[in-house]
Amino acid sequence: METRELDFFKKQINSLATKALDKRVSLTNFLDETKQAIILNSHFKGITVDFASGFQGGEYKRAIFRPLASAFADFKIVVYEILYNERFLNLTHRKILGSLMELGIKRESIGDIVLNENKAYFACCKEISIYVENNFKTIGHTAIELKEVLVPITVKKEFIDKEFSLASLRLDVVVAGAYKISRNEAASIINNGLVSVNHILCLNLSYQVKEKDILSVKHKGRVYVRKIGGLTRSSKIVVTLGFLK
User: Fold this and answer.
1) Distance of CA 5 to the CA centre of its chain
2) What residue ranges do the domains of the chain occupy?
3) Residue 214 CA, distance from chain mean position
4) DSSP-assigned beta bridge partners for residue 201
């Protein structure tokens, strides 16, 4: 996230927090995990902030800012299953999102797009659900139908685990190993603000990577630190990294 965008977002959430202190409930659009982490690390006092995606294990979530004493509020999320003929349409995340964007819908109004066992689902803000139902009729040139889903769908993340023998757990060393680039290139990527750790920008080359950390490198993808094991005979550290299929 660029500095200007970050500053604007912080002003937005501070405004929502002020409203919650004034006994008003406020709801965001869908936020990516970086923006969620910024909210979680803001430590607002006197209010409650909750998140929901519409899926079990979803990535994109709406945040609700509310007074401490208020009842739990509606996140206003609708989840749809896309009904289609597999003979004429091979659905992908990109095709679904692209078709929704062609309708003039903003990305932040759409949550996760989930492909599970030949079924396709997506979440959207309830505020635009009628528009979606009335206008989202085709993907490409193929007709589709929408069916609202009332039972929570679990997002399944499948990993390909790979073992690496690394000289240390420094961020630049792990990034270099994970993406098969030189350490100098990894350092340059980090210094240029292209690496996040647990969805927060990290400029610290010597950050010590830990188990369960999530490393995101812009234009290269995301890896999950699945396990940090013992040492090899050459005293290198065995690290298992998970790559999403």
Assistant:
1) 17
2) 3-67, 77-154, 159-244
3) 11
4) 196
Bridge-based pairing of strands 119-125 and 77-83 is antiparallel
Inter-CA distances, 57 with 34, 153, 156, Å: 16, 9, 8
CB-based contact 238:229 (threshold 8 Å): yes
**H runs (alpha helix) in 41-191:** 93-101, 129-135, 171-179, 183-191
Give me the pLDDT at residue 1, please.
Answer: 65
Residues 6+ away with beta carbon under 8 Å from 234: 165
pTM of the model: 0.79
Choosing among 3.40.220.10, 3.30.70.330, 1.10.600.10, 1.10.3720.10, the CATH entry for 77-154 is 3.30.70.330
CATH node for 159-244 = 3.10.290.10
Q: Tell me the CATH architecture of domain 3-67.
A: 2-Layer Sandwich (3.30)
| One fold for 3-67 and 159-244 | no
CA distances from residue 227 to 5, 213, 232 in whole angstroms, order as listed: 34, 10, 15
Q: Rounded to the nearest 5 degrees, what angle is found at the Cα of 107, between the Cα atoms of 136 and 78? A: 55
Q: Which pLDDT tens digit goes with each residue over 132-165?
A: 999 999 998 899 999 999 988 999 888 899 999 9
Beta pairing class for 55-56 and 77-83: unpaired
Q: Write the DSSP string, 38-56.
A: HHHTT--SSEEEEEE-SEE
pLDDT for residue 219: 85
